[in-house]
Structure formats: C-alpha cells, structure tokens
Amino acid sequence: MATLDVVTSANEQAGQVELDPSIFEATVRPHLLHAEVRRQLAGRRAGTHSTKNRSAVSGGGAKPYRQKGTGRARQGTIRAPQWAGGGAVFGPVPRKHSHSLSKKTRRAALISVLSTRQAEGAITVVEALELESFQTKAVVKVLHSLGMAGDSALIVIATANEKLEKSSANIARVGCIRVEGLNVYDVLRHNQLVLTKDAVEALEKRLNPLAAEETE
C-alpha cells in the first residue's frame, strides 16, 4: 500500500495518507484508456455535418436534352451526382457519434489512469485548498509552492468550491474538477494531479464500493 505525504498549500508536511492499492496501484491497461478517450471525444462531436443528395438539391426538374439523337449519354436531370452542382453521393448527414461503454469498463479505465499517475510520481495530496477570495494569483501562488509553476496540473476537489474553481479557470494548462466528474481524458491532458485529502477519500468511495461499506 502506497503512502504519500500530505502537504499544506505552502508545501509544508501535514501528515500522511495511505492510498488504496486497488485504485492507485492497479495493473495499467492501455487499451481501456484508448477506448474511454474515444468514447469521451466522440460524445463531444456536434454531428451537425450535412450534405444534399440529388433529391434535396433544388432545380433539375426538366430533362436537360432529348433522350435520343444527340450522340451523348442519356440524362434525366442536371442534379444527378455526375453533374456540377449535383447532389452528393453518400455524403455526411446529421447524426450522433456517441457510443457507450459499460460502467465496469469506464471504472477500470479511470483506475488505470490514476495508477499511471501514481507510478509516475505525479500525484500530490494537499490537506485543503481554501481561498479567501476570488483570486487567480492565489492559485498560481499555491501551484508555485507545490513546484508546479508553468506545468499542467489538474486540481481534484471533493465538493463544490466556487472560489477555487473560478480562480483557476483563467490559468493556462490548469484545471479544477470535482471527484464526481473526474475522467480519463482530463487526467491524461495534465501532467500533474493535485488531490485534496477529502478528494482521496471520495475517490476511494466512488471507485471501491466495498471499501466504502467497510468504513461505514
């Protein structure tokens, strides 16, 4: 079982926390990460692309020229695909690109990416992250204290924290997300993972229901 130091926002040690090995030291399965990222990105596609087929293109109601005697191939309409300005053949139509994965697969993918970050030593556990006001520079100062200045970092919190969420929104390559919304794509997009101590407990309850029942 891995043990990490818990630090304050000023990067001073404030204790230790034991990480659940079934979540942070599991076998990494790259194919699950690929499948989950594909699912997330596919769900974000608008799917509004559209073309007109020959029945949707206006005009072309009259036969362009007589059937026989011209020496040319017979034609019924100038809106056929072979004519300039004609309809498209098998063109894209509005549709949904989203597809689903089972809850078990999505859970395993999230565990894999958390285990990857833990193996890389890219997880930092902070005792708490409370801001006195809405200040972007306060979040920048915290990240600088944690040695993450200029690096991409994802801050994970257990519950809503409006000041922290809005204050970190304007910082390039920095994100703030609640445990309930933590996903594979956002973790992979950031090099560092900053978890509050409460977020670690919430993650274990979300991803390991058996452990949650034991604590209750």
A few lines on this structure:
The protein has 216 residues and is α/β, with parallel strands linked by helices. It is built from eight helices and six strands, in the order ββαααβαβαβαβαα.
Account of the 3D structure:
The protein has 216 residues and is an alpha/beta fold. It has two domains: 162 residues, 3-Layer(aba) Sandwich (Ribosomal Protein L4, Chain: A), CATH 3.40.1370.10; 41 residues, no CATH class. It contains eight helices and six strands. It has a six-stranded mixed beta sheet. Strand 1 and strand 2 form a beta hairpin. The protein is elongated and about 95 Å long. 22% of the residues are buried. The C terminus is likely disordered.
Would you spell out the secondary-structure blueprint of this structure?
Layout: E1 3-7, E2 13-18, H1 21-24, H2 30-44, H3 103-119, E3 123-126, H4 136-145, E4 153-157, H5 162-167, E5 174-178, H6 184-189, E6 192-196, H7 197-207, H8 209-215
Parallel strand pairs: 1-3, 3-6, 4-5, 4-6
Antiparallel strand pairs: 1-2
Helix pairs in contact: 2-3, 7-8
Overall helicity: 25-40%
Strand content: 5-15%
**Bulk shape:** elongated
**Number of individual domains:** 2
State mean pLDDT (0 to 100 scale): 93
